[in-house]
Write a structure and sequence with these properties.
With 497 residues, the chain is α+β, with helices and mostly antiparallel strands. The protein is 66% helix and 9% strand. It is built from nine helices and seven strands; from the N terminus they run ααααααβαββαββαββ.
């Protein structure tokens, strides 16, 4: 499944999960709306109708009373109109499930209708006893029966309304509860799907990022934990990554082999040139003029510089190829430092630079290093310190004990390095902009080799420099080194010149 298909399917699933509680809530609202319409169109209207019936019966009672005292056609007509109104309203009760009340009211109104004429005629002929009898024994009881039926209907209607309101409340509560539970479950499900979807994308991205970072750090043997057989974009990226690292490793190996072979092949002609130059200076092939002697001296000096560059190139290629092994053996630290001090004291006296070595009294007496390699590292750092220090300046080598082992610092009061260039001083052939202050030119390989030697011992090296104030190189070395392959030099590591 491709990444695009996975994303579309995941988003569609999330949308469906979120829509389900909405549909449930909509259904509950529809039921609630139906109950509300039944209450409005049914019970509430029926209640109003019963109220109108009660008023109509009161009007009928008043009209019957008026008929007893006003014996004209208007009273008779009013009585008939009130009776017709009651009968008309009664007919409407059947629509609201109140047929029992309607039947009782019709029965009473039939009695009233059948006796209204007799009461009217008795009232016209002033037969008062008969009028009272019809009114008290027939008509009024029939009206009272109708009123009683209405009261029973109102009681029944109230009970029915109460039940429907309760049912509507239950529907509303059930709908709210269902919607909340459904929405909660939907959100949890959507969150889980979103998390799984994010994880399925972020994990391979992180793994590829980690692999690219390690490749950038020089580890060309790294592998990403993504199967190239995957059918999505990450599978293709993993396959491309594997091809890239393989090709880079082959190129790196070819480069190291080329540098090694080229450097090795250069040694012989360089040594031949150097030998013949020295023979010329010894006048083995005849006397030299002063001008020829100066030329031979320049040739010897440049040939030695070229030989030193070839040696450094060989060292770099060996370390990068993993064959720059260390000869770890016990080294007496104080004697090691004393030899360095003696070697550079002559240079310090020649250049009138104050040079001293300070060793912490708690420093270990014996360390397990490759003494020759570490002598090369410190010699390179001290050479740089003298190279960039003016006459009357100061160079110091201090050694203290730290938790990680032994810390050595080479400080000078020289030209310093611009801050933006400090991270690049470990690059091969890179030289900072302070070369004008140097007493002689360098190759740009010394610090790269120094860093690889230190890291091969399991140590670290850093640089702190301020232009116009000086530079401090700080090395932290384990007391007992265990050889490990040094990382390839990186442009983004802050350190020295």
């Amino acid at each position: 499944m491709t990444l695009r298909t996975r994303l579309i399917l995941g988003l569609f699933t999330i949308a469906v999960i979120l829509v389900v509680p909405l549909l449930v809530a909509t259904r509950s609202l529809d039921r609630l709306q139906g109950e509300a319409e039944q209450l409005r169109e049914g019970d509430f209207t029926a209640s109003l109708l019963l109220g109108r019936l009660t008023e109509a019966l009161n009007d009928l009672r008043s009209a019957e009373l008026a008929l007893q005292f006003v014996h004209d056609a208007g009273s008779r007509r009013s009585m008939n109109e009130r009776l017709a109104t009651v009968q008309q309203l009664t007919d409407s009760l059947d629509r609201y499930a109140l047929s029992g009340a309607a039947r009782d009211i019709r029965s009473g109104m039939a009695v009233v209708a059948s006796n209204v004429e007799a009461e009217y005629q008795a009232a016209r002929t002033e037969r008062n006893a008969e009028v009272d009898r019809i009114s008290q024994k027939v008509i009024l009881p029939a009206i009272t029966l109708a009123e009683t039926s209405i009261m029973r209907a109102e009681t029944s209607l109230r009970q029915r309304t109460r039940e429907r309101v309760s049912e509507a409340a239950v529907i509303a509560q059930t709908g709210i509860r269902t919607a909340v539970i459904g929405l909660s479950l939907a959100l949890v499900g959507a969150a889980i799907i979103a998390a799984l979807l994010t994880q399925s994308v972020s994990r391979p991205v992180y793994e590829l990022e980690r692999g690219m970072r390690r490749v950038a750090d020089g580890d060309l043997q790294t592998q990403v934990k993504i199967s190239p057989s995957r059918t999505d974009e990450f599978g293709r990226l993993a396959a491309s990554f594997a091809d890239m690292t393989r090709q880079l490793a082959e190129l790196d190996k070819l480069k190291a082999e080329f540098v090694s072979v080229a450097s090795h092949e250069l040694k012989t002609p360089i040594n031949v040139i150097l030998g013949y130059t020295q023979l010329l200076q010894e006048e083995l092939y005849g006397p030299l003029t002063e001008k020829q002697r100066n030329v031979a001296l320049v040739l010897e000096k440049q040939t030695k510089t070229l030989a030193r560059l070839v040696k450094q190139l060989l060292d770099v290629s060996r370390f990068e190829a993993g064959s720059g092994k260390l000869d770890i053996r016990p080294t007496e630290l104080r004697g090691f430092l004393h030899n360095l001090e003696e070697a550079f004291q002559v240079l310090a006296d020649q250049r009138n630079i104050h040079f001293h070595v300070n060793m912490d009294g708690n420093a270990p007496s014996t360390v397990h290093w490759d003494a020759d390699r570490m002598n090369e590292v410190l010699g390179n750092l001290l050479s740089n310190a003298f190279k960039f220090s003016n006459e009357g300046g100061e160079v110091e080598l201090s050694v203290v004990t730290v938790d990680q082992g032994v810390q050595m610092e080479v400080r000078d009061s020289g030209a310093g390095i611009p801050p933006e260039q400090v991270p690049r001083i470990w690059d091969k052939f890179y030289q900072a902009d302070n070369q004008d202050a140097a007493s002689h030119a360098g190759t740009g390989l010394g610090l790269s080799i120094a860093r690889q030697i230190v890291e091969a011992h399991g140590g670290t090296i850093n640089c702190d420099s301020t232009p116009g104030v000086g530079t401090t190189f700080s090395l932290v070395m384990p007391e007992r080194a265990a050889w490990r392959r040094a990382s390839a030099p990186q442009p983004a590591i802050p350190e020295a010149v």
